[in-house]
Amino acid sequence: MTDRRRTPVNDRIAAAHLKDAPAGLDLVEGTAARIGVPVADLLRAPDGARDRQLVYGEPVTVYEDRNGWSFLQAAKDSYVGYVPGTALTAPFEATHWVSAPATHCYSADDFKSPETQALSHGSRVQALGGTGRFLETNLGFIPARHLSPLGAHAADPAAVAELFLGTPYLWGGNSRFGIDCSGLVQAALLACGMPCPGDSGMQEAELGEAAASKDYQRGDLLFWKGHVALVRDARTLIHANAHDMAVAIEPIEAAVERIQAQGDGPVTAHKRLA
Fold this sequence. Notes:
The protein is mostly beta strands. The chain folds into three domains: 4-89, SH3 type barrels; 96-149, SH3 type barrels, CATH 2.30.30; 157-272, endopeptidase fold (from Nostoc punctiforme), CATH 3.90.1720.10. The protein is built from four helices and 25 strands. The strands form eight sheets. The chain has a six-stranded antiparallel β-sheet. Keywords: Hydrolase, Protease, Thiol protease. It holds the Pfam family SH3_16.
């Protein structure tokens, strides 16, 4: 069965590259764009439920613009959905990504100058020049220490996840301003140059290899039905969770017992990444 979350098809159009597109739909090639707001909700339907989020500068392919909504597919994980057309901007050559938990764009190369907007971890910008402590970008001036060149990756997914400690829990969230369990894992892995799908079920099915029970190593993934966490060490994990309503560190065994006691079942998989 085709997964609607990663198949660019709706009631009117289908991506031209699909080999089994339903008959009667217009086949379209799609056009390149980037997210042009700090955070955009990726919705299941216009004005519908949020599935995921996209942050500034993420590349997308737009397959339809209709009634103020853009039907698109995200480059990072092939997730499909709708965003307001006003959330998009023309393609630009991104050179850097926000590797700090979050940052501000300033109107001048001075931390006392007015800030123009905030950006989450993972946002992509185009550097226009350097001014020492700041890089001038297409959005203004950003502290240089908050940016990394595209292609420069972090080395430890668990350390990236720790950057999000205290971030509010948000169902379907993918930013420092609000994130859920699979969003945290995806942010951690993508920052390390590791492909990662958007939802915990996909992550359980597609990431890593099964590890020995309770042989916990930093960077392992623990899965429950509808939930995922990153192992920090032999005793603790880090996850975005609705119990704390935040990204938090928790003893592994306490988390396992609590999650089962609240009715969400036992650990369904323990995976180790290459």
